Amino acid sequence: MFSRWLPGLNRGLATPTGRIAQLVGRSLSRSLQLSSRWSVPELSSFVARTNTCGELRSSHLGQEVTLCGWIQYRRQNIFLVLRDFQGLVQVLIPQDESAASVKKILCDAPMESVVQVSGTVVSRPPGQENPKMPTGDIEIKVKTAELLNPCKKLPFEIKDFMKKTEALRLQYRYLDLRSFQMQYNLRLRSQMVMKMREYLCNLHGFVDVETPTLFKRTPGGAKEFVIPSREPGKFYSLPQSPQQFKQLLMVGGLDRYFQVARCYRDEGSRPDRQPEFTQIDIEMSFVDQTGIRSLIEGLLQYSWPSDKGPVGVPFPSMTFAEALASYGTDKPDTRFGMKIVDISDVFRNTEVGFLQDALSKPQGTVKAIRIPEGAEVLPVFLKANRNWNSPVAKLVMEEQGLGLIRRMENQEEDVVLLTAGEHKRACSLLGKLRLECADLLEARGVLLRDPALFSFLWVVDFPLFLPKEEKPGELESAHHPFTAPHPSDIHLLHTEPEKVRSQHYDLVLNGSEVGGGSIRIHDAQLQRYILETLLKEDVKLLSHLLQALDYGAPPHGGIALGLDRLVCLVTGAPSIRDVIAFPKSFRGQDLMSDAPDFIPPEDLKPYHIQVSWPTDAETEKNSLNPPHHPES
Amino acid sequence: MFSRWLPGLNRGLATPTGRIAQLVGRSLSRSLQLSSRWSVPELSSFVARTNTCGELRSSHLGQEVTLCGWIQYRRQNIFLVLRDFQGLVQVLIPQDESAASVKKILCDAPMESVVQVSGTVVSRPPGQENPKMPTGDIEIKVKTAELLNPCKKLPFEIKDFMKKTEALRLQYRYLDLRSFQMQYNLRLRSQMVMKMREYLCNLHGFVDVETPTLFKRTPGGAKEFVIPSREPGKFYSLPQSPQQFKQLLMVGGLDRYFQVARCYRDEGSRPDRQPEFTQIDIEMSFVDQTGIRSLIEGLLQYSWPSDKGPVGVPFPSMTFAEALASYGTDKPDTRFGMKIVDISDVFRNTEVGFLQDALSKPQGTVKAIRIPEGAEVLPVFLKANRNWNSPVAKLVMEEQGLGLIRRMENQEEDVVLLTAGEHKRACSLLGKLRLECADLLEARGVLLRDPALFSFLWVVDFPLFLPKEEKPGELESAHHPFTAPHPSDIHLLHTEPEKVRSQHYDLVLNGSEVGGGSIRIHDAQLQRYILETLLKEDVKLLSHLLQALDYGAPPHGGIALGLDRLVCLVTGAPSIRDVIAFPKSFRGQDLMSDAPDFIPPEDLKPYHIQVSWPTDAETEKNSLNPPHHPES
Questions:
Q1: What are the phi and psi torsion angles at B106 (to 5°)?
Q2: Among residues A439, A445, A387, which one has the least CA distance to residue A415?
Q3: Cβ separation A613–B609 shorter than 8 A
Q4: Looking at the complex, does the CB of residue A584 fall below 8 Å from at least one CB of chain B?
Q5: Nearest to B85 by CA among A629, A129, A205
Q6: pLDDT-based confidence at residue B410 (cuts at 50, 70, 90)
Q7: Residue A88: which H helix or E strand, with range?
Q8: Which residue, B83, B441, B613, B621, is the most exposed by fewest CB within 10 angstroms?
Q9: In this predicted model, what pLDDT tens digit does every residue of A514-542 receive, in sequence order?
């Protein structure tokens, strides 16, 4: 788990406590760097300490200081290393008789106890400086000490924490939070959000409006948590996004809205998803796609941590069709090549059965990707030296083989993967293989995706509708039903709606979707036509929104950035759980407090609900974790 | 409803549209003032307009501008007044033949339609300037116009909206939001919060941490909404505050935490309460009461809107005992006097029966308040001219009468109200009468409470425990069980716990509680003793917190400010619903979308719950609004 963070660490530093402490020291000095970039906050205002442990330097020599922190390390009852959120500092334990009580406090306190010490900042003896440690020139000659709170024997050592299972980390999250990674991640998150607010609020006049989370079910809101109210049979829903509210705020003339919005989605157990998550939610009146894109490019540029390098703008842009054709996905990782190539024409006259089959169909294609130096990692199909290694090799005519090599620009040791079939399926398959191969190559030491590179991309011109998976004859919204159609395609709405492109845009970073939005429909009639006629939705649930559009709704559009995912990518954390203070497990549980939990039936009475306990048969059929009935 | 806002308006301004528009104009110029105080945001970046309607001045003369806005008013097809969030501007409708199409667009569009116009900023003809309107020197000579969205016939006129019932305002909230009051309130709220964030994050190094809202029930959490999970019988709860999380963050070494936190409380129907509300939630390590108080005084001073006058610090402070004795409440309105006076000694030898009775009891007291000029509004009991007007007058001896007059410093026309009984009850009664009398006096035109005055007060030294209302032999926490006892009273914890004062503090503004907090218990043993032995709570629900305190928890404390209430007092709004974009009605309903709503039984299945429909008898007994069963 460490390895993911290491590439980001760019300065050496050593402390007396070995490798782990080095990492802590490095990170804390990074976190100091973070805060000092934007302003110089007073970190010791209003409290007992005069300074933080990590801020002391030679310039403080001779000063009387009071520090509060945790005992990170103790050596031979002579030195202590004291830690706070800002860093580490060495403390000299007094050895003379007159200070016996101070010595006793500092030597008896278990590791991770909290102490307050007062003393003088002194130079380390010549030769004992530690030039790689920010506080390495000085130490604290302690005069008084107080044990503020002792620490019981820990369930594990803090410094080894990251080697523990994630379940243990989550159970003792309050200890895990002391780790340098979590401190760094949470502080970086806070500062990025603060900069975003400054950009939106102070530079561009956005209004931070809080919208309700106790709301009404939205059509098709099967993933919305329900909250029973005190009115029998009536429920609130926790919204998946403030979509309706942000549009209503535009109708209300708010002009520019943003919110760091808590959103909810009940997807059951899914790895790397959280039942509650946060999005930077934005909506503007009188704006078009270009406007929203410039706004977001400026926002990310402004809020980007300085130690992550500058963000180049404008971000490149790609149509959905192009993304699918070249990368087999709507969220291409553009940090590396290996694009999909259509080689249908090369095989127009092939004798290979599955290629023939595929090409004989109206949508049939043959597609390929070239894996540079892929011979290292893959059983080879086609190599540039014509040493064909494939069961179908003998059926490939020499002309076609040469054509393929030419088209794919094959080099020795490269591997070409090809597939045949309908365009979308073929691309999608190769898109997945492309990422798998990249993983394989990187596992073998080939650097394809520079971890210091942040490759943003806009994907645009999505289809407005998709055929329903269960009933392909019917349409559903590709994103949501408030998305405006592309102006060039409006004429198709009544004739060939499936061909209409939308004004939706996605923001992709290193192959992950970090944002999405659209220009919305502001015409009530068009909105009603799409909901009722094309999507066959029950518009009763949305009557307030339709009505609002009728009362002078301005043209408007917006976007939402997934904050957890974004910060996860910025910090290089392995999981979004590492950028959330108290995340749920993949089963939606809080392993620290054991939520969700049983509730006595009498507490459900005011809400007019009761539990329908599943029968044993149902339990076996439906559930991996059988319910434990409370005593009843 | 207007009257509450009027005293705050401090600049004259007139527009062509009469009194209501004057108010709109005034407010919008106030809102402009607000934003320009803190920075000069670019309000027209990224969008179709070049300028906002409200910002145009003589300095823009000759400029070609494009504006987007709502048609506020049209006069004789010659003038339009166009409105956006920033203000109003006069638009000249072109009258020449060549611009017939522009004229048609602008003259045909119904009021509140959204239009985009382009044209030149020109001077108004001499004599037609409106010096009281910010844009009153200029007007727009329009060249092109586009109807962006027409407005249907409104259910009421926007300008009259505030005269409508609140239910109608909430049903059409998106229209209500266009009113100057709502724009002003929401923008002021956004800007105050932004300043608070700057103060906490940029000036004092606080970390903004988002804590979960899907959590576990807290002990005694009867007011917590429950959310069924997909595990049969298990529920999340929506927390009333991030109390546990903020303390765990301190254990985790975060040092300084804040969050603008959404909180939830299910109190059924209560006027001026919302089921979801927002608090500025703060926690610090190594801090004492003085530290928190200075922090908050600085915070309010820094974030206070400039048009509301400066905030004087430090705020005065009063013990709970003093507040009760002098004001009969724990949240005294210190903008005016009329304090409670103990006059027990005056009546030590009284012959008045109920006074005799009261004073003969161990806790018996006689208390009084003097209502200056109260004779105007009250049936008089005792007047300075000795014209006793009371059924007990004949029993009051002259000496006592004189003593009373002297003690209360009675003037002619003053009224003294007195009561006798146990100290707390007597004070509490007079405290309520004090506020009632203030209302009566002000209704008669006597200015007691200056609406421009903001009178902050700390109330401290609350009792740590109170006797349980149902079982007076048992104790419950006066605030919450994590509150630390007062250091001077710790020795009483094992002997007379009911006498222990706490380290809780409340912040009171103009007689409303706007914040509260405490220094917390960081000693696991003390916390366990209070929970188990004194409060008889089930500590299982809190085992994670108790365990955390054992692992090197730093001393810590914090506070939460009620943002809705605070902004309500700052803006002078009649209700917290006027500072929330989409509030619930007092019955917890969203009148716009009709939430909460019925949900089909199949959507409840994944959550293993079903509705327990009340029988008709129960319905009659328990409910004011009988449930309407959905078709079933």
A1: -75, -30
A2: A387
A3: no
A4: yes
A5: A205
A6: confident
A7: strand A87-92
A8: B621
A9: 999 999 999 999 999 999 999 999 888 89
B191 neighbourhood in chain A, CB within 8 Å: 201
Cβ contacts of A151 on chain B, cutoff 8 Å? 550-552
Cβ-contact B145, B106 below 8 angstroms: yes
Tell me whether A607 touches chain B (CB under 8 Å).
yes
Q: pTM for this one?
A: 0.92
Q: Determine whether B624 is exposed, middle or buried from the number of CB atoms within 10 Å of its CB (0-12, 13-18, 19+).
A: exposed
- Out of B193, B229, B625, the one facing A596 most closely (by C-beta) is B229
Q: pLDDT tens digit string along A577-620?
A: 999 999 999 899 999 999 999 999 999 999 999 999 988 766 65
Q: What is the ipTM score, two decimals?
A: 0.91
Task: Transcribe A276-313 into DSSP letters.
Answer: EEEEEEEEEESB-HHHHHHHHHHHHHHHS-GGG-PPPS
pLDDT at A72 over 70: yes
B282 DSSP β-pair partners: B258, B559
- Is residue B579 within 8 A of residue B566, CB to CB? The reply is no
Beta strand B207-208 pairing with B256-264: parallel
User: Which residue from A minimizes the CA distance to B583?
Assistant: A212
Count Cβ atoms within 10 A of the Cβ of residue A529 and give its class: 0-12 exposed, 13-18 middle, 19 or more buried.
middle
- The packing angle between helices B243-251 and B543-550, to 10°, is 20
> A415 CB near a chain B CB, below 8 Å?
no
Which of B204, B551, B613 has the CB atom closest to A175's CB atom? B551
Residue-wise pLDDT for A220-276, tens only, equals 767 899 999 999 999 999 999 999 999 999 999 999 999 999 999 998 767 788 999
DSSP 8-state assignment for residue B342: E
Neighbour tally for B12: CB within 10 Å: 10
Cβ–Cβ gap B253/A284 under 8 Å:
no
Instruction: State how far residue B367 is from chain A, nearest Cα, in angstroms.
Output: 41
DSSP A432: H
